[in-house]
Amino acid sequence: MTGGRMNKHGEKRLPRPLDSARLEELALAYVARFATSAAKLEGYLARKLRERGWEGEGAAPIATLVERFVRAGYVDDLAYARAKSGSLLRRGYGQRRIGQALHAAGIDEQVRDEVRVGKGEERRAALAMARKRGFGPFGRGEPDRPQREKQIAAMLRAGHRLDSARELVNAATQEAALEWAGQGEEDE
Q1: Bridge partners of 6?
Q2: How far apart are CA 169 and CA 150, in angstroms?
Q3: Does the chain have fewer CB atoms within 10 Å around its N or its C terminus?
Q4: Domain ranges of the chain
Q5: % of the chain residues with pLDDT over 70
Q6: Residue 2: exposure state from Cβ atoms within 10 A (0-12, 13-18, ≥19)
Q7: Residues sharing a CB contact under 8 Å with residue 120, sequence separation 6 or more, in sequence order
Q8: Alpha-carbon distance 188 to 181, whole Å?
């Protein structure tokens, strides 16, 4: 049997349309469970309205509800952007990819600029990716030209700059890669 509730005749029961109280309950449950941005919360509530319909008077108060949650501190785009940026950096993603993820989450450009990282953090993220994926001196043996090109392409897809990708993939030793990653410290 697939998901969904059934009535006494074995037919799938449609969920009740939403009203203001139920919409707020859904919003509270969502922000309690997930770190989110205002735009993501608004998208979630709009999707729930499409799925279930609206029972209340007039248009559903999604924007008003989201605004109230922002004022109450349940939703904070800056805090979300900082957390998401830090998480992606630790996983080895570059600044371009982080910017794309924040844009997709509805974070405005001013906030994205505020959480932009310095050169040192960008280098450490590139180093984290090279270590994790076994690129350059962190791999087994000396990579040949086609393998180096694939590694550089993977780093570019992860949002790293071309010069950083080349520097890491072409590093002669792990120590040289570590030294390069530490050079951006003074730029922060």
Answers
A1: 12
A2: 10
A3: N
A4: 20-75, 78-187
A5: 93
A6: exposed
A7: 182, 183, 184, 185, 186, 187, 188
A8: 13
